Amino acid sequence: MATTKTRTPNVTHYSPGYGYSYADIMRHPGHVFFVQSTHASAVDNVGHGRSPDLPCATLEYAMSLCTASAGDIVYLLPGHIEIVTAAAPLNLDVIGVTIRGCGSGTIQPIIRFTTAVGAVCNVTAASITVENVNWQAGFADITAAILPICTDFTIRRCRFTEQTAALNCLIWIGEPADATAARITVEDCLIYAFDTANTHFINYAGTGSGHIFRRNVLMGDWGTMAVGGAGIILDAEISNNYIYNLANTANGCLLFAATATGVMARNMVGNSAAASSQITATGMSKNFNYAVDIGGADVQGIPEPAMA
Q1: 20 to 30 A Cα–Cα from 156, which one of 5, 210, 215, 299?
Q2: What is the dihedral sign for C-alpha 283, 284, 289, 295?
Q3: What is residue 13's predicted lDDT score, i.e. its pLDDT?
Q4: DSSP string covering 68-137, please?
Q5: Please, where are the H alpha helices in 102-202?
Q6: Could you give the CA distance from residue 224 to residue 74 in angstroms, rounded to a whole number?
Q7: How many Cβ atoms from other residues are within 10 Å of residue 26's Cβ?
């Protein structure tokens, strides 16, 4: 059996005499690490993580093996479950690391929050990307799960779910109330969050710039707003999202500060309030957004801005 090197494009798997390719220099410019909590050989030590047959047990430990600004990749293998608590928060703190989940449906890797303490996933380093992970609420009324205090944080093709009907996250992503976060991107995600105590999916509380929220599908119950906040964010892109919000709350789908700037286009939203009150973004350039009263009071979506 060939020895697996840190930077080889081939990983040798325990199988009848062959290896398989997983890498190229564009996709894997740095070191590659593997994590799978359910693997019989999973251990958090320096001898593990370089092969899917000898994985680390936690993402938190795998992050400690990464090198800043090297383009390292951490693969969360099918069935992995990362348990995040107040005593063991998840710290994404190495610049330039990409975390990729492998698998879909019931074997999609899970990051599960089991504490009510806010910001139990702290993103403090720039240019971190998380792809294909099920972010899951495993506790009642989690204050805020993900706190990006950084630049260029991306969440892509992920799910956000509640483990049971009684477990939920009041705010999934909390942009801090200052300018420390910039260019936060959330794209191609699917969100299910139907607990009536929920307030926001993402709360833009600060003054960061360049945030992107696009091509997401949100289904849930958010009593304040699904997406938005009081922060004066600048040069944002809010586009091509579909939002279904059960809450009977004015401005309950997209609500931004009057002086927030950017582009808001092609969003289709609905909640139980009047359709005319569901999208508010006075300072943004708005094009082809539609809102509907899901209670049936409106026959079809009302355009925002109104058509001449």
Answers
A1: 5
A2: negative
A3: 44
A4: TTS--EEEE-TT-EEEE-SSS-EEE-STT-EEEE---GGGS-EEEE---SS--EEE-SSS-EEES-EEEE
A5: none
A6: 35
A7: 7
